[in-house]
Design goal:
By secondary structure, the protein is of the alpha/beta class. It has 3 domains: 8-301, Metal-dependent hydrolases (TIM Barrel), CATH 3.20.20.140; 303-429 and 825-834 and 841-936, P-loop containing nucleotide triphosphate hydrolases (Rossmann fold), CATH 3.40.50; 462-661, no CATH class. The chain has a 9-stranded mixed beta sheet with strand order 13-12-11-6-5-4-1-14-15, sandwiched between helices. A 6-stranded mixed beta sheet has the order 22-26-27-18-28-29. A hairpin with a 2-residue loop joins β2 and β3 (43-45). α9 crosses α10 (362-372), α14 runs antiparallel to α19 and α26 packs parallel to α27. The longest helix is centred in the middle third of the chain and has 50 residues, at 451-500.
Length: 938
């Protein structure tokens, strides 16, 4: 596998003094002697100065500095390069690094000069001492010979022909003529650039790319200037980058081993580049938002999001064997058509099994199949994946064995792959996301950002909905019981009327009736006790037979002896409880016999109660009531007693069900509350997305407003299409739904509840539906089972995306749902959404296609720059704006030779070969060419 050649973060200290200026160097032990090289028998002895240079370099390594700018005042007053401390730093650099097992430090030779304020001048990193003479000559060119550089040990201000050298002149000589870089030193201090109003014109020079600050956070004044908000210091175009440096005059540390003030590494800057150079620094200063950081820790420590580390391709028909080591930030694949850019992305799609996703269009699936068509029997594809920093999984694919995980642990590969946060989008997929009927996909994009919270709410929703179905059934049962109670009461009233009609035997009849009630009461008590007996008897029978051990304890188990003892204790206790229960049952049986079957007093009372019946019959005979009438009275009594018993049962049943209506209303309210929480969660996510895009788009969520989904369910109720109601069924549904959307937000829980509300008061029926007020309510009532099911179905929320133009304020262009946008504008809107959602890698094939050209530089490029610090981006593109102006950390340029895609160049845009490939391959906007000139000076 090839090493990663894209950009990475380097720790830099741009203002480092050395013992070259012995008068101002604080560490006595490192000051240089006079002469600097002792006289030896075989010539000057350089042992001491070389040793001090090694000590200096080792301290740089201790601080993990990777770039240092040597900025001694006026370079040096010595004429012999062998007397320069910097010469020995360069010569000892590799050997010290090798000794410590580290990379050599990138040393930028330079000097600090005084032009009324202090300025740093740095030149190309070098390892050759002879290059230092060119740096020395630049200072001579500016007007300071070695003899003029110091007066009584103090550095001389930079003057030429008795005038201070201007910043404009310094920029021309250092940057334009000699390939260096100028940085205004400690610009926020009293002797710095930003402290004097007379320096404003210097600050406004466009070639001044960077200044150094000593305070961070910035003071209010400095922040307003560097933020472009101070009108007195206004500067056209981009403000300069700001960096921090130590202004080192010592290697000293405090008691904790940290650098003291103005010691080496006391302040520093993180610079992102492929390899430190002046060109790389210029690019970093031009794109300081993404390439310069003055945090204490490396920005990489904050970028812990999952990423694709590398892709290795072997044995493909149309791609040369190669390994692509991706940046954790923005990666762009470039090349003419037919070089294999899209194929590489499709190979990644295959490696993560996204080509099998059902949501892919036929066209997208065909692209994946074409990629597979490049395979040979010897093809092998490898992907390294990093979910957690430092922990690599390795996926392998071959045509014979398919996909497998060859490094890492997984229980089920399809599940593992499905949960990896990798997203793939082709241009066709972007278009499909905003096409007619794409609403479910848009909603899914939003839902994926709150999956855990949403799944919890939806789980609760399913539970509540299932309980509501039970309560609906219980409500029906309660209504049926209520109807039966009403009927029984009416029947008993009629029986009582017939009974009371026999007034001649009323007294005897009343005695008989009371006697019958008394017998029934005693029977009810007996039956209740008997039920208790049966329950206890059944419980006793259900207990497990207590034979043997309940389980076998293995001696190999931890605490096996305690577990064995515990098992015996449990067995003993259960046997004791069973014995007690058997004793309780025996006591209950004895009590039942004493209270009921063997109760002598009851036998006496029962004879007396039966006497009331005989007296009643005798009275009927004495009064001349016909035998058939007596029989009728007896039948009336039996019927009445049966009805009374039934009424008591139904009233008990009603008592158990009487709270169902209230419970149902509470459960429905709970369900509707869960629906609203789902909307509020999506609405929160939509606001966050809108904020992350800086106002380029606004994601809108309308609760339960997806009409197509509603109409599918509405049509499931449709009556006979030949009927008057059936012919207008779709129109009625559409009208009711749109009227629901016009209602006051939150007034109705769903379209179904809105229609339910209308059916309770037909005067509220809207417009055209009024003509069906006699047909619609009874029809819906006849479909009450289906209607109840619909009341428990949540109509999906509607997602729309508004697109704004950012020119002196936000101006609404249109929305995806409103269809005012062109295809390119719709794709611009969806790209905004895709790039800010999620945290895993997102791979897009030519995102610039069909996108409004004006939006690429103004909106897409800033969005890419923002997104790449929060997730990995991998793009195949033909547009120069993306790798150049979005500041791609890694560009992979392909060429085609004899029908095979081969590597042309790779690395950051600050590499010469990569920059040349970009200019040779790509076409871009005027702004892209302008930015290229600023970066590459072509």
């Amino acid at each position: 596998m090839s090493n990663y050649q894209g950009m990475r973060w380097f720790k830099a200290d741009f203002q480092v003094q050395t013992p070259e200026d012995s008068k101002n160097w604080s560490d006595v032990e490192l000051r240089l002697g006079n002469p600097r090289r002792a006289r030896g028998l075989e010539g000057p002895d350089e042992t001491e100065i070389s040793s001090k240079a090694r000590t200096f370099l080792k301290r740089c390594h201790d601080l993990e500095l990777q770039i240092i700018g040597i900025t001694d005042h006026n370079f040096s007053g010595h004429t012999d390069p062998r007397d320069w401390f910097l010469t020995h730093l360069l010569e000892q650099n590799k050997s010290v690094a090798r000794e410590l097992g580290r990379e050599p430090i990138y040393i930028l030779p330079g000097f600090e000069v005084d032009i009324g304020y202090h300025v740093l001048c740095l030149f190309e990193p070098t390892g050759k001492a002879k290059d230092l003479e060119r740096v020395n000559k630049v200072l001579i060119q500016l007007g300071l010979t070695e003899a003029q550089r110091f007066t009584k040990g103090e550095p001389t201000p930079l003057r030429r022909e008795d005038s201070t050298v201007s910043m404009a002149k310094l920029l021309k000589v250092v940057q334009e003529e000699n390939g260096g870089i100028v940085i205004a030193a400690h610009a926020d201090q009293n002797d710095g650039l930003l402290e004097r109003p007379s320096n404003r014109l210097d600050y406004q020079l466009p070639d001044l790319l960077a200044i150094e600050v000593t305070q961070y956070p910035l003071s209010q004044k400095v922040a307003s200037i560097l933020g472009g908000k101070n009108p007195e210091w206004s500067r056209p175009g981009k403000q300069p980058a700001y960096v921090q440096s130590s202004d080192a005059k010592s290697l000293a540390t405090d008691d904790q081993g940290n650098p003291k003030s103005n010691s080496l590494g006391y302040r520093y800057t993180w610079v992102k580049c492929s390899q430190p150079s002046i060109a790389a620094l210029k690019q970093a200063f031009l794109d300081s938002e993404s390439r310069i950081s003055i945090d204490k820790e490396s920005p990489d420590l904050h970028q812990t999001f999952p990423r694709i580390v590398s892709l290795t391709i072997k044995g493909s028909k149309y791609l040369e064997d190669q390994t692509i080591a991706f940046s954790r930030n923005l990666n762009t694949l470039i090349g003419a058509r037919g070089t294999g850019k899209s194929t590489i992305l499709e190979l990644l799609r295959i490696m993560f099994a996204r080509h099998e996703t059902e949501s892919l269009s036929d066209r997208a699936k065909q692209k994946a199949e074409r990629a597979k068509g490049t395979f040979t029997p010897d093809t092998e594809i490898l992907v390294e994946w990093e979910s957690i920093p430092g922990e690599l999984d390795r996926l392998r694919y071959t045509p014979n064995e398919g996909l497998s995980l060859v490094q890492g642990e997984v229980h089920d590969l399809p599940t593992y792959l499905r949960h990896l946060p990798v997203q793939f989008y082709s241009q066709q997929q972007l278009t499909d996301l905003t096409a007619s009927g794409s609403q479910p996909q848009l909603l899914r994009l939003v839902d994926e950002l709150c999956t855990a919270e949403l799944e919890k709410l939806q789980g609760e929703e399913r539970t509540v909905a299932a309980d509501i179905k039970r309560l609906f059934a219980a409500k029906d049962q309660a209504q049926a019981v209520q109807n039966e109670i009403t009927n029984l009461k009416q029947e008993l009233l009629e029986l009582e009327r017939q009974w009371q009609a026999r007034k001649d035997v009323q007294k005897e009849a009343e005695d008989f009736q009371n006697s019958s009630l008394a017998k029934r009461y005693f029977k009810t008590m007996s039956e209740a006790f008997d039920k208790d007996l049966s329950a206890v008897d059944q419980a006793l029978k259900l207990l497990h037979t207590l034979t043997g051990e309940p389980f076998s304890v293995t001696e190999k188990w931890p605490h096996s002896q305690w577990l064995s003892q515990q098992a015996k204790s449990v067995s003993d206790r259960r046997a004791a409880h069973r014995k007690k229960l058997a004793e309780v049952l025996a006591d209950m049986q004895a009590d039942f016999s004493a209270l009921f079957t063997q109760n002598q007093r009851w036998k006496e009372i029962e004879i007396e109660l039966d006497g009331a019946r005989d007296a009643f019959v005798s009275a009927c005979e004495a009064k001349g009531i016909q035998p058939q009438d007596v029989s009728r009275l007896q039948e009336l009594d039996r019927t009445k007693q049966a009805k009374l018993s039934s009424l008591q049962d139904k009233e008990r049943q009603w008592k158990e069900l009487e709270g169902v209506a209230s419970e149902l209303e509470q459960s429905l309210a709970r369900l509707f509350g869960l629906w609203n929480q789902q909307y509020m969660l999506r609405e929160k996510i939509a606001r966050e997305i809108s904020e992350k895009t800086g106002g380029s788009i606004r994601v809108l969520i309308r609760p339960m407003a997806y009409e197509s989904s509603f109409m599918i369910d509405w049509d499931s109720l449709e009556p006979d299409r030949r009927s008057r109601l059936g012919k207008e069924w779709d129109s009625i549904g559409t009208y009711l739904f749109r009227d629901f959307l016009k209602a006051e937000p939150g007034l109705h829980s769903s379209p179904w509840e809105y229609i339910e509300w209308l059916m309770q008061d037909l005067t509220k029926l809207p417009g055209i539906v009024q003509q069906f007020k006699t047909e619609l309510p009874p029809y819906l009532e006849s479909m009450h089972e289906k209607w109840r099911q619909l009341r428990l179905i949540r109509v999906p929320d509607l997602v729309d995306i508004e697109l704004y133009r950012q020119d002196r304020g936000q101006h609404l262009i249109g929305s995806v749902g409103g269809r005012q946008l062109s295809e390119g504008q719709r794709n611009t809107a969806i790209l905004n959404l895709l790039l800010v959602r999620g945290f895993g890698p997102i791979i897009i094939d030519q995102p610039e296609d069909e996108v409004d050209t004006s939006f690429i530089y103004r909106d897409l490029v800033p969005l890419l720059k923002q997104a790449k610090s929060q997730r990995q981006l991998i793009l195949a593109t033909h547009n120069a704006n993306l790798p150049v102006n979005a500041d791609s950390e890694f560009v992979y340029a392909l060429k085609s030779e004899q029908g095979v895609g081969r590597l042309l160049a790779q690395g950051g845009t600050d590499r010469k070969a990569t920059a040349t490939a970009i200019l040779d391959i790509m076409e871009g906007s005027e702004e892209a060419f302008k930015r290229r000139f600023e970066k590459y000076h072509f």
